[in-house]
Backbone:
């Protein structure tokens, strides 16, 4: 099944849209990862670094108050020391909340433990300094040594925490950079593929449309020159295929019209030449006085001229009648009439001709036929045409059967069956066309028949149908129907 142009475009653009949507989904998730990494750097690593710096500042502040307290023995510095003590645990708590690895938490806990030990050591030493009268420099030196170890431990853990945070920040930055590069590469590749798909789809659709149209254009030029090409075999979308089929039908119809023009000229020359020639010769003989002393011969010549003139008038009338029928300008005079008298009158009129050729006329007429609303003269013309053709194509000693009945559809059906040559099945439809004539079972190359075409127009106007049935070599049956009045 060939895809239509619309379907092709929809499929192509859907493929591109799906590709773009896929790129969008991929970019969304990957950029969301980058955003999460950046948020982690800001909320964890940068915050950890800032809080660690604050911890060091808090510790240095307490150390200053401690130094001043032991030097000056002023309890105000002791009070300031314990007031600033609350900031360090608060910062440790914040740091514990944002640390994202167990190693970092262990460093924070180690720094906190060392800090708490420092507070206990300071409390004990400060109490001894305030209460003991024999507090000396040696005791302070021992205290200072222990304090420096604890402070160094705190500083070492905090520095290690900062180094770990910096390493994590660097890893995360590299990961974000790697994802960004991947997104750029995938986006570039996808855009390139989408552009390539657009180009390919455009080329394919353009070629599938443009090439058939160019062929049709060339064939149209040939038709304009009077040459009718054979059926176009063009591989194309259904829309162009339908256009091609319509073009072929148009060419076929134009060829038929051209043939009809030739047939018409042939018909005119064939039908009019003989009577005109006879009239010309008879008139010449009369003018030359060939039979001046023979009145009987002159009368015969006048009768020939009269008969041939009538023949000419009848033929011209047939052509004019067909033209008016095709233009739907023919006048009909309908009246309710019995069909049987028309059939019997035509049989009686042609019986002498049939007897002369030894052809048997048989009628199969039903006396209970309903009347019909018909143009009597036109129906007589149809019956004469069918009976005349039957006599014409039935050999001597043949048989013709005329039947009339009411068929199973309630229509009046008239049939004329002969034992003539018959008509090939493929030619049955041609017998009702203009200028087509079947002789000896073969269609004439240049037909001159109008009778059956006229008969078809008449029956169609009456609301009936006309058709032919035949077996080649075994005779034919021509039938027509008319609506019966109840």
Residues:
């Amino acid at each position: 099944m060939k895809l239509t142009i619309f379907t092709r475009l929809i499929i192509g653009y859907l493929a591109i849209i799906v590709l773009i949507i896929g790129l969008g989904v991929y970019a969304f998730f990957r950029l969301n990862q980058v955003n999460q990494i950046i948020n982690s750097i800001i909320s964890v690593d940068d915050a950890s670094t800032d809080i660690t710096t604050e911890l060091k500042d808090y510790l240095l502040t307490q150390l200053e108050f401690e130094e001043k307290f032991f030097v000056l023995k002023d309890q105000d510095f002791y009070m300031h020391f314990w007031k600033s003590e609350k900031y360090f645990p608060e910062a440790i708590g914040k740091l514990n909340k944002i640390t994202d690895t167990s190693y970092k938490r262990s460093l924070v806990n180690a720094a906190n433990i060392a800090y708490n030990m420092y507070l206990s050591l300071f409390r004990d030493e400060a109490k001894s300094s305030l209460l003991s009268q024999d507090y000396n420099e040696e005791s302070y030196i021992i205290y200072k040594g222990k304090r420096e170890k604890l402070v160094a431990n705190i500083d070492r853990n905090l520095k290690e925490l900062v180094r770990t945070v910096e390493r994590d920040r660097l890893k995360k930055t590299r990961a974000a950079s790697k994802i960004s590069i991947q997104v750029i590469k995938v986006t570039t590749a996808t855009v390139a593929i989408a552009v390539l798909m657009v180009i390919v789809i455009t080329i394919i659709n353009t070629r599938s449309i443009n090439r058939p149209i160019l062929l049709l254009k060339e064939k149209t030029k040939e038709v304009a020159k009077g040459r009718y090409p054979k059926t176009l075999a063009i591989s194309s979308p259904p829309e162009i295929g339908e256009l091609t089929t319509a073009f072929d039908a148009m060419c076929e119809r134009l060829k038929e019209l051209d043939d009809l023009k030739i047939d018409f000229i042939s018909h005119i020359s064939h039908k009019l030449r003989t009577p005109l020639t006879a009239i010309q010769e008879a008139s010449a003989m009369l003018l030359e006085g060939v039979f001046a002393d023979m009145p009987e011969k002159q009368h015969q010549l006048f009768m020939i001229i009269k008969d041939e003139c009538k023949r000419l008038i009848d033929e011209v009338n047939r052509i004019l009648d067909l033209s008016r029928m095709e233009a739907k300008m023919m006048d009909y005079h309908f009246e309710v009439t019995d069909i049987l008298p028309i059939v019997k009158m035509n049989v009686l009129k042609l019986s002498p001709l049939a007897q002369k050729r030894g052809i048997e006329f048989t009628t199969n007429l039903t006396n209970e036929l309903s009347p019909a609303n018909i143009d009597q003269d036109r129906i007589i013309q149809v019956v004469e045409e069918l009976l005349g053709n039957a006599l014409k194509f039935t050999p001597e000693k043949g048989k013709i059967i005329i039947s009339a009945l009411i068929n199973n559809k309630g229509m009046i059906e008239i049939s004329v069956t002969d034992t003539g040559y018959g008509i090939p099945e493929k030619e049955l439809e041609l017998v009702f066309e203009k200028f087509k004539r079947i002789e000896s079972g073969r269609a004439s190359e240049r037909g001159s028949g109008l009778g059956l075409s006229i008969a078809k127009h008449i029956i169609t106007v009456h609301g009936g149908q006309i058709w032919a049935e035949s077996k080649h070599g075994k005779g034919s049956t021509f039938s027509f129907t008319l609506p019966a009045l109840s």
